[in-house]
Each structure stands twice: as structure tokens, then as C-alpha cells.
Amino acid sequence: MAWIWHVSMGVVGVLVVVSAPRRVTGAAFVALLLAGGSVACGGGAKSDSAVAGQPRVTPAAAVARAGEDAKDITSLRYRISGTVPGKGRLEAEASMNTQPPAMSMKMTAAAAQGGRGQLEIRFVGKVMYVGGSAVRPEKLNGKRWLSAAPAVWGRSGGDNQSYGVLPGQLQASPTEQSTLLTGSKDLRLIGTEAVDGAKTTHYRGTVNSKGLVGGRLDQFMQLEVSDPLTMDLWTDGDGRTRQFRLRADHNDMAAGTGDGPLDLTVTFLDINRPVAIKAPPAKDTTPIADDAQGG
After folding, report:
1. Domain annotation covers residue 295
2. How far apart are CA 222 and CA 209, in angstroms?
3. pTM for the whole thing?
4. d(CA 39, CA 167)
5. Per residue in 81-119, pLDDT tens?
6. Number of folded domains that form the chain
7. Helix intervals (H) in the chain
8. How far is CA 159 from the centre of its chain?
9. Which residue range is the domain that position 11 belongs to?
10. In Å, what is the CA distance from 155 to each residue of 45, 112, 211, 219, 222?
């Protein structure tokens, strides 16, 4: 049995098709189809100086250090902006925890004909909650949130499950995505720049799927892009990642058609500061009930 919801974004209609078995498990929950194609909801060769006053390090050493530091991030507040193949331009602000795994995101896109709408998405305890102004209230039975389970965010490759709500490029943890540049063979220093008022060192390189293994290969494949991926990384005076940018042509093999390029910028705002991510109150939530699924 399929449910069809109409999500309003200004004057643009969004068709949300829900097709789920009795227990939802393993089935497509939400497919977002937007008019206008927008989403419902931006080895180093020599030693170079980093931020003024910091020791001179090679680009490879600086990027490797940032990659190691990313493993110690337990909570993060971050911002995303740019374009996603097949979805269009989007902006999002999000927070995440690693123990226990949880994520909260508010995602907005400029839809066709100037309409705008926002989706709020949370992953808590293997349940996904979806709300926001882009969801028509009359489809929520007087509640504020929809829910689906089991839902998984932040893992590598096919382990994630957001039932089509999130583009694949946003399914992975940004802390893991930030380490992709460690697989580059042509790292170079671009210069020193300010990111949100912080002095940073800017590095750039390209990454190819050939030679990547394990989790990094999974991260690359999940981006659904063609070789090469161009990646920029900005590190602060402590050697931590403050921002990264991913750019590549879309992999036509992934969707069977050309969907335009990927160009996403992710900015780390607060690192390892307390983040509270909670499930919405049960009284405000409409689950996908067993008796509504049909046979």
C-alpha cells in the first residue's frame, strides 16, 4: 500500500510517496520529487608554513593530522551549503553526536519560482523524525512530526537508511567525509584565509576512487560522483579541520542520467561542545502505524 503526501514549498508542490510494508523495515519510506529539481529541504611536494606562528609542515602531514583529529570528534555543530546532483541548491545547519549516535538537521532549499520550505530531520535511537514548514499540517493528523524506523545515519556506504529524505551526499558523517583528502596524491598549499573569523590554512587536492580502501572508498562511492573529486580543506592553528569543500561531476552510472555537478561546502562551527539531540515528544509524532500499511 502506498501513501501519497503533498508537501508545500511556496508555490512549488512536492510529492512525497510513502511505500512501506507492515513493519517498514528495509522498504522505501520517503521519495522526494520536487518540481524544478530542487531538494526539499555549498603527498605534498614541499614544506609550507601554516597559520602564522605555527611550525612549517608539508601539506600531506597537515592533512593527515586533521584526519587523525577527526577521529576524536564526539560532537559537532556544522553548516552545509552548495548544490547536490538531481536536487539543486541547498543550505543546512546540523548537530551530531557519536555516543550515542544522533543527528539533527534543518535543511532549506530555494525551490522553483522562488518558493522556500524547510525540513527538520532528526535521527535518534534508530528512528528518523521529519517535520518542518515544508510538510503540510493536514497530512500529520494534527501532529508536528512523521517517524520511520529503522533509520540509520552517519555510517559508510549502504549501511545508511533515511528512506530517501536525505540526499546520499548528506548520509555520511562530515567528520568522516573530511578525511577523504588524505587519499590525494597531489596535495598543495593554497594559502591562508579566514573561515568564520578564524585564521586557517587552505589545502587542495584531487581524489580518485582507485587506491582508496575501506571506509574512505565507501565515502567516495556514496557521493555518487565521477573521478576525480576535487577537495579543499581548511585547517586552523590547532591543526583541526574548520571547513572542507567537495566538487565533482555527477556519476551518470549512479542514476542513469546526468544530474549536474556536486559542489558542497561543510563548515565546522563547534567541535566537542555539548549537543542535545532528543526525539520529539510522542504526543507530537505520527508513526507509520502497522494497521495503515495494508497487507
Report:
1. no
2. 11
3. 0.79
4. 8
5. 999 987 789 999 999 999 999 999 999 865 433 446 789
6. 1
7. 59-70, 174-177, 214-222, 252-255
8. 15
9. 2-290
10. 33, 32, 21, 9, 10
